[in-house]
Amino acid sequence: MTKAIITVVGKDTEGIIAKVCTHLADNHINILDISQTIVQGYFNMMMIVDMEKCTKDFGCISTEMAELGESIGVQVKCQLEDIFDKMHRI
Question: What percentage of the chain reaches a pLDDT higher than 90?
Answer without folding.
Answer: 88
